[in-house]
Amino acid sequence: MAEILQIKCGTDNCYIVAERGNAILVDTGSAEGLEQVITECSKYKLKLIVLTHPHFDHAENAAAISERFDVPVAVNKADVEIFGNYDAQPLKSYGVVGKVVLGLSLKVLRNTKVRRPEKLIFVKEGDSLAEYGIDARILELPGHTIGSIGVDVEQKNLLVGDALDNWIKPAVGHLFCDYDTIKKTAQKIKLLGQRTLYYGHGKPTDNFLL
Ligand SMILES: [Zn+2]
Q1: Residue 122: domain span
Q2: What does the mean pLDDT of the chain come to?
Q3: Is 182 helix (H, G, I), strand (E, B) or coil?
Q4: Given phi > 0 = left and psi -120 to 50 = alpha, else beta, which region is 140?
Q5: Spacing, Cα 117 to ligand 1 middle (Å)
Q6: Which of 13, 154, 158, 206 falls 20 to 30 Å from 173 in CA-CA distance?
């Protein structure tokens, strides 16, 4: 059975998913968390980095960790344009929480140039991570960004990135490039049934959409 370790990195979470010593890292945090994430990854045989999407708070350390451990970085092709250019897919928000979060992060989203990793691989809906030693598959969860993805581990634990968030209480992601699409993604997650949800922001919960 896979073990899921949450690493808090500023306001963002990244996750190590480990099974029999092998591990994947899902999101990498922002620069101030680099050493902490490297320390945690060093305890495992790191095989792959998955980026739910390339915003700085998830991806700023991706290139450095990829080089350090000599592992590829998996991302959805539709999001590659965001590396180094947040404005390729500008965010909007809903609600008071969304307004506050976007207001606080917009400047740094724009100004942090996330380096595109050299060892980039593209993943899509349904791709298995078995070759990296983990019983998990990629789910496309668009709406926050066009190419946002999640990782469904053993059909029990879903790492959602920013498709959903838990700033104060669990909710449909407060920031989105396309609201109709993120609402459809929430419906897709609902239809998965029982899951523990692991957010980019906030503590894990049960599938609150059920
Ligand atoms: Zn984001």
Answers
A1: 3-204
A2: 97
A3: helix
A4: beta
A5: 18
A6: 154
